Amino acid sequence: MKKWILGALVLTSMSFGLSAQQHKNFRQSNPTERAKKMTDRMAEELKLTEEQRKQVSQLTLENANRQEELLKRRKAEFEAQKEYRLAQDQKLASILTEEQKQIWEQRKEAMRNRGKDNHSRGDQGRGGRPGSRRGR
Predict the structure, then answer these.
(1) CA–CA distance from 111 to each of 72, 82, 87, 99, 125 (Å)?
(2) pLDDT per residue over 49-107, tens digit each?
(3) Residues 61 and 40: beta-carbon distance below 8 Å
(4) Burial 88-115 (b: 16+ CB within 10 A, else e)
């Protein structure tokens, strides 16, 4: 039970303990450095005993290595999906006439712009009034 609570505490600390600037620097370091920083921070904030520090260190290193592996996997999947989309676009281009290609490209551009418009609406949220957001 203690290990479960300690694990939950470590994961919670890792999730909420970083500011935006620290997050950027944190991501740029290797898993061992991230685990050490997190362990040091937790040891200071929680006043861990030496035994607790060893256990937390092992747990944070395990978590940092897993996160690194997951990140690499996501990047590889993203690249594979990108290559697949390009191949599909080339196949489609070989089927369509020039006029159809132009219409298709215009449609794709409109969809891209529509996505950008949705992300640049500021505080409006989804169809809400300006300045009204849930959770405020």
Answers:
(1) 29, 17, 20, 19, 19
(2) 999 999 999 999 999 999 999 999 999 999 999 999 999 999 999 999 999 999 999 99
(3) no
(4) eeeeeeeeeeeeeeeeeeeeeeeeeeee
What pLDDT is recorded for position 136? 45
> Which amino acid is residue 84, in one-letter code?
Y
Q: What secondary structure letter does DSSP report for 131?
A: T
Closest by CA position to 81, among listed 92, 69, 73: 73
E strands along the chain, which residues? Answer: none
- Type and span of the H or E element at 108: helix 98-119
